[in-house]
Design goal:
Length: about 1300
């Protein structure tokens, strides 16, 4: 016979355990004699941090230091993805991958901090510690990088370079048809003291498209509401070491949960070791983008007076049949296993005394519901001191709070101090428990525990929730085992303080016996009022001596509940529907692990629903009338506190009738008065509504007027610009520079631009070998095999694919016919692969995952240059100029790049900036005696902004690269011919208040309208200022500077006005017009002075209206087959016809698919790139605000080419809403454009080849062929063995002996190297 009443424990010796916080194993073989599969790291100092197992394939994904691994279910290594080390410095913000960093750089390990499988999209989210904590989306099949978003502040999660403080939960969404849509990533992270940069918890967008611009954006982000919580700077001022460590995250039902550990912020003092830490459970509603549902309660467990409060690990599992029965739950209910260390101190070095605790999600939700109800009844405070900074009183509100309540804009965020207590299942004192996992086997929920020393414990949870049984006298106990039906007259016994009690049992079947717990005290003993532990507990089963004292289970006796009489008379008078309140003591067992006793309350013979609290039961009575006895049953106790007399609804006495009549009359009078008041109030409301309507009409009129005035003013400026362009022309880049910027962005000095240079004396031999290589590259079989082989290599990255495609196109610049034939073959292969892999056809050409896709972009760049120069370039340049000039008409923040006029909500100044337009008279740098040049500036412009506007005015007909740079010039303010002062962004007069340093502006220097200024080279500035010079009042504060400068050399003044740099001032933050939103220390008055953000969004409309004509002109040009005398480029017609042929070949007749292929091919792959980057085409400078506006135009261009229906709502991005009315109009242009192209006569191969030959001839000497081949050869060298093997297996390659020729080439190159 086996008793399964207690927890059993098995230890697995000599089992190495490499994971810090998680582990995985094959449960059926963990403690058997079978040999376990293992996976060993090649570098033991690069530890493993996280593990994820695919729910259907069983594939194992590991995240470690500098590596992501994919293993088979048998732990065989399948794929390795390198993530580091890379050059970095934690102080670089934004990170090095976004902009250059002046901090010292060193090779830094990339610690994996998050590893999540997005099952719905077949991809892996891996977040590391490098570059302020950027993440990658990897394809599950081969760990190919689908996306690595890193260009926005939302993409940086946390720079903390150790694991254990970050958790994430992916929640998928479904559309109305049940199809999976975009997902949300809920993420919590330690921030390492950088609370200004990183939120501690946030909800991020996880679109299906990995290249979506919205990837990892906050689900909601406005000035007033956001899907995030940040740690206030005041909290860190109070507790310098404060951070929130996220240990585990999961989703259950309609909620997302995080388990955290954080320091207490009350009663702080002393050293970090004196801090008290609290483990908490945080709950949010799925889809609550405003975080109104945020609730945080402390969590832990207690065993025999010992508190276990420092969370180490957790795991969510299902209950299973056996545990579910013990918990009075269902098999599919979620249960949470959590491992805690003893106490609340020394979180970094916790005690080895630790415990496994069990919680049901049902009980956790019940505790949260009780906390919500208590707060909405106005009881106590919000109790979230670390976030709110003070005690905030709960607000009483008559709100029904059910199991799905998701909060309001009051009583949130909500904390609590009452511990959510779990069932203590198992304790360990020798080796600290550090990890936990669980699974269901044969109905039993089996937990596996990992220890600090690397050992594993197995806990069989048969009735673990009863391990501390909360016994009352006559409580029913269930005993399970085998062969129990042979026991005759079974009994249960208990011994306490020398007194033994026995009670009867009943045999249910061969595996189950039901017993009534015996009373602990003798019948004549006083009433028990405290917790008691039985000295002995056992069973009398057929004289089986071993069971008389069965102490392996700890039984605890609690005081019996007792109830007060319902009334002094014994009968309580009760109105229909009123709750019956039963008051008493010991109704909830103390330290009971959060569980409740099962109470049954009967009114007569009818049960009523019961709500249990510490001192009372609330019974919602059934629909009855008359007198009934009230009976309470709990455990083996049956108690009656009295009877209730429920009055009948229909029996009304005469006094009652008279009272009702009087009350009705009074009510009628009140209703009349209310109606009169309502009518008056309604009239007032009508007046208010009319006033609001008038205000809205005025606002609309102001916006329309602003658009008209701004457009008229801008049109005047553009007309002046057009006349200048007629003289000087558009500053087009020469062909070579244009191609380099498209093919090799950011690589100005590429080897293909210069002659091949070989170190040593092997130049001629290398050139000879490369001529042999040129023959191979001009062989279609070789080049196709070469590209296909490289694309099969896992280490051949997306960057490599793009780079190789550009090299091949430059090498084949003189053979465009051959390049086009090769491209068509590669595209055919790509389409076939897309069909065979059963991907959605619309995804074709959407991303740059292949050499073919990048080659297609480059092919269009080669062949559309003439069209850009003769036709499309003019409207694109005019749009750029219009945006630049319109932006500069209003203030632009020199630090944040935000502007008063913008198309982008992200770059919009959302507060009122007072400014004036000034006209400065600028000395002509070519002839100081000629007429001064008028330049319009703003008095809020920084000195650098003024210099740039002056340079634009003076050198407006000169390409940007040929102009002087603002940084190389000084701005002199002149008064007369002798008095001058150099104006700078920062000098000794710069204002610094509360660690904020404001850049100098013209207003700061009190420069007024019509003042004379001059731009002079820095090295030749002169300061011949006599001491007798008279200055206006505005110069008075610079008198000391000027006088000291007049007596010495020009450098003496510079030495008196040093630049103030952040390097010299610890912690000083620089600002211009608005303080960075990321900083939490803005004054409340400054925040409060902002108008409602929506008011400022009208400026987006005003700017859009002003620029509308220029956007329309560009789109009309790009979506027209004949425009301004220019015919449609042959390349467009030829490629569109090729795509139609491929669609016919694969029997694709869906017009939407064909439309999408064409959109992905040309607008998405080429035009969007050009619209966003006009500096690829023109010799210009693109500022950050211009870039943001062009991005909005480019997104609108993409949306216009899409066949998808754009459903817009109040939460849609502003750029989508901005052009919502225009996009259907633009879509009709695109459809007409594609239809017109399809109706044009087909281009014969002969005509196309002649055109390609002419284009090749025109530009055959732009790039150095040998240098391009030398760059391509690096890939031959790296993958030589794989390429040779592929050539040896190809039938055409065998006939041409290409493998042999390649081996000869490799030998020749090796000899010379």
């Amino acid at each position: 016979m086996e008793l399964r009443h207690s927890a059993t424990l098995h230890r697995c010796p000599n089992l190495s355990f490499q994971f810090v916080s998680c582990f995985w194993f094959v449960a059926s073989s963990i403690c058997s004699a079978q040999t376990l599969n293992t996976f060993q790291l090649d570098r033991r100092d690069w530890s493993l941090n996280h593990l994820a197992v695919h729910q259907s394939t069983g594939m194992v994904y590991l995240g470690g230091v500098n590596r992501i691994y994919k293993l088979s279910p048998e732990l065989d290594l399948l794929v390795t993805h390198n993530t580091g080390p890379e050059l970095d410095n934690q102080a670089c913000y934004p990170p090095l991958i976004m902009q250059p960093c002046s901090e010292p750089l060193s090779y830094t390990n990339n610690v994996n901090k998050l590893l999540l499988i997005d099952h719905s999209q077949n991809r892996l989210l891996a977040c590391g510690s490098l570059y302020q904590g950027v993440c990658k989306l990897l394809r599950l099949d081969d760990l190919f990088v689908l996306a690595e978003p890193s260009h926005k502040k939302e993409h940086y999660f946390s720079s903390v370079n150790r694991t254990g403080g970050m958790c994430g939960v992916i929640v998928s969404h479904h559309d109305s048809r049940g199809s999976r849509g975009d997902a949300t990533l809920y993420i919590g992270t330690a921030v390492g003291g950088k609370q200004d940069y990183f939120p501690t918890i946030s909800a991020r967008k996880l679109p299906r498209d990995p290249e979506s611009a919205a990837m990892l954006d906050y689900e909601l982000h406005t000035d007033f509401l956001s899907s995030l919580v940040k740690i206030p700077s005041d909290t860190l001022a109070l507790v310098a070491q404060f951070d929130i460590y996220y240990v585990y995250g999961f989703a259950s039902g309609g909620f997302v949960y995080f388990l955290t550990v954080q320091p207490e912020t009350s009663d702080v003092g002393g050293s970090p070791g004196d801090l008290f830490y609290t483990s908490r459970i945080v709950r949010l509603c799925k889809g609550d983008n405003k975080f109104h549902s945020y609730v945080s309660l402390p969590i832990g467990c207690v065993q025999k007076g010992v508190e276990y409060r420092l969370l180490q690990a957790a795991y969510l599992a299902k209950a299973g049949s056996v545990l579910a029965k013990a918990l009075n739950a269902s098999e599919q209910d979620d249960v949470l296993f959590a491992v805690f260390s003893k106490g609340q101190k020394q979180y970094q070095r916790p005690s080895d005394d630790s415990a496994l605790c069990l919680f049901t999600i049902r009980d956790i939700n019940l505790r949260i519901k009780e906390r919500l109800r208590s707060c909405y009844q106005g009881e106590g405070n919000l109790e979230l001191h670390w976030l709110l900074g003070k005690d905030v009183q709960c607000t009483k509100a008559p709100v029904p709070i059910d199991d799905h309540f998701c909060g309001l804009d009051i009583n949130q965020p909500l904390g609590g101090s009452e511990l959510v207590t779990g069932h203590t299942v198992y304790t360990e004192t020798a080796e600290r428990l550090t990890a936990v996992s669980a699974y269901i086997y044969d109905g039993y929920c089996i937990a596996f525990l990992g220890t600090r020393a690397g050992n594993i414990r197995k806990v069989r949870n048969g009735l673990i929730s009863r391990a501390d049984l909360h016994l009352l006298g006559h409580t029913t106990l269930t005993v399970t085992g085998t062969n129990l039906d042979v026991v005759q007259e079974p009994r249960v016994r208990v011994k306490y303080a020398g007194h033994e009690s026995v009670n009867v049992c009943k045999v249910v079947n061969s595996t189950t016996i039901s017993c009534f717990a015996p009373s602990l005290m003798a019948d004549h003993a006083p009433v028990q009022e405290s917790i008691k532990h039985a000295d002995e507990f056992g069973f009398v089963f057929n004289n089986v001596q071993a069971l008389l004292t069965y102490n392996s289970t700890s039984f605890i006796y609690y005081p019996n509940p007792s109830f007060e009489p319902l009334s002094l008379t014994g009968v309580l008078e009760q109105k229909p529907g009123s709750p019956i309140i039963l008051k008493g003591r010991n109704l909830v067992p103390p330290a009971s692990g959060g569980s409740r006793l099962n109470y049954t309350v009967l009114v007569g013979d009818t049960p009523c629903p019961v709500t249990i609290s510490e001192h009372q039961l609330l019974c919602e009575p059934p629909t009855l009338s008359g007198q009934h006895k009230v009976t309470v049953q709990v455990g083996g106790l049956l108690v009656s506190p009295g009877s209730v007399h429920i009055q009948s609804d229909s029996l009304l006495t005469l006094p009652a009738i008279l009272s009702i009549a009087a009350g009705g009359g009074l009510l009628f009078i009140i209703v009349i008065l209310v109606l009169i008041a309502y009518r008056r109030k309604s009239h007032e409301n009508d007046l208010t509504l009319k006033r609001l309507q008038m205000q809205m009409d005025n606002l609309e009129s102001r916006v329309a007027l602003e658009c008209k005035e701004a457009f008229a003013e801008l049109q005047t400026d553009i007309n002046e610009l057009t006349s200048d362009l007629d003289r000087a022309g558009i500053p087009h880049l020469e062909y070579r520079t244009y191609i380099m910027r498209v093919l090799f962005p950011g690589m100005d000095d590429h080897p293909v631009l210069r002659e091949l240079e070989v170190a040593g004396c092997g130049q001629q031999q290398v050139e000879k070998a490369l001529k042999l290589f040129a023959q191979l590259v001009n062989n279609k079989t070789f080049l196709l095999t070469f590209i296909r082989t490289l694309e099969l290599q896992r280490s051949f990255s997306m960057r490599d694919r793009g780079y190789l495609a550009s090299l091949i196109m430059t090498a084949l610049q003189a053979r465009l016919e051959f390049a086009t034939d090769l491209l068509k073959q590669l595209l055919s292969d790509l389409i076939l692969k897309n069909m065979e892999s059963k991907n959605h056809p619309k995804l074709l050409l959407r991303r740059t995952e292949s050499v073919a896709e990048k080659m297609l972009t480059n092919w269009f760049a080669f062949l559309l240059h003439k069209f850009l120069k003769e036709c499309a370039g003019e409207p694109l340049f005019m749009l750029y100029c219009a945006i630049k000039q319109q932006m500069e008409k209003g203030p632009i923040d020199a630090i944040t790049g935000e502007a008063r006029y913008s198309l982008s909500e992200d770059k919009l100044i959302r507060q009122q900036i007072e400014y004036k337009i000034l006209t400065l008279s600028c000395v002509n740098p070519d002839n100081e005696n000629s007429t001064e040049i008028p330049v319009k500036v703003l008095n809020c412009d920084t000195i650098t902004q003024v210099k740039e506007k002056i340079l634009d005015a003076i050198y407006k007909n000169i390409p940007y690269s040929q102009r002087p740079r603002a940084v190389d010039m000084d701005l002199e303010w002149r008064q007369g011919r002798t008095a001058r002062v150099v104006l700078q962004d920062e000098d000794i007069t710069t204002k610094i208040e509360n660690d904020w340093k404001r850049l100098n502006t013209l207003m700061h220097y009190q420069v007024s309208d019509r003042c004379v200024v001059a731009l002079v080279p820095k090295q030749t500035s002169s300061y011949n200022i006599p001491t007798s010079a008279s200055f206006p009042r505005s110069f008075s504060r610079y008198d000391t500077v000027l006088r000291s400068a007049s007596a010495g050399s020009p450098e003496s003044m510079r030495s008196r006005a040093p630049m103030i740099t952040p390097d010299l001032e610890s912690g000083v933050k620089v600002w211009h017009l608005v303080k960075n939103h990321e900083h939490g220390d803005q004054k409340e008055a400054e925040r409060g002075s902002k108008m409602v953000s929506e008011i400022y969004l009208t400026r987006l409309l005003a700017t859009k209206g002003t620029l509308q004509k220029f956007v329309d002109d560009l789109f009309e040009t790009l979506f027209s087959t004949v425009h301004r005398g220019s015919a449609l480029p042959l390349a467009i017609k030829y490629m569109f016809d090729f795509l139609d042929e491929q669609a016919d070949k694969h029997a694709i007749h869906d017009p939407d698919v064909r439309h999408t292929w064409k959109s992905n091919c040309l607008p998405l792959r080429f035009w969007v790139n050009v619209i966003k980057n006009p500096q690829f085409v023109f010799d210009i400078h693109k500022s950050s605000i211009t870039d943001a506006c062009l991005s909005v135009v480019a997104q609108t261009f993409m949306d216009s080419c899409s066949t998808s229906e754009h459903r817009l709502g109040k939460d849609s991005p502003s750029n989508k809403l901005l052009y919502a009315k225009d996009i259907p109009h633009y879509k009709s242009w695109v459809e007409r454009y594609y239809a017109d192209i399809s109706r044009l006569p087909a281009i014969s191969d002969q005509d196309m080849n002649a055109y390609l030959a002419e284009q090749a001839r025109l530009h055959s000497h732009e790039f150095n062929m040998m240098s391009a081949l030398h760059e391509i050869y690096t890939y031959v060298s790296k993958y030589s063995q794989e390429i040779i093997e592929a050539l040896e297996q190809d039938e055409l390659a065998q006939k041409q002996r290409l493998a042999y020729k390649l081996e000869q080439l490799i030998a020749a190159m090796a000899t010379e190297s």
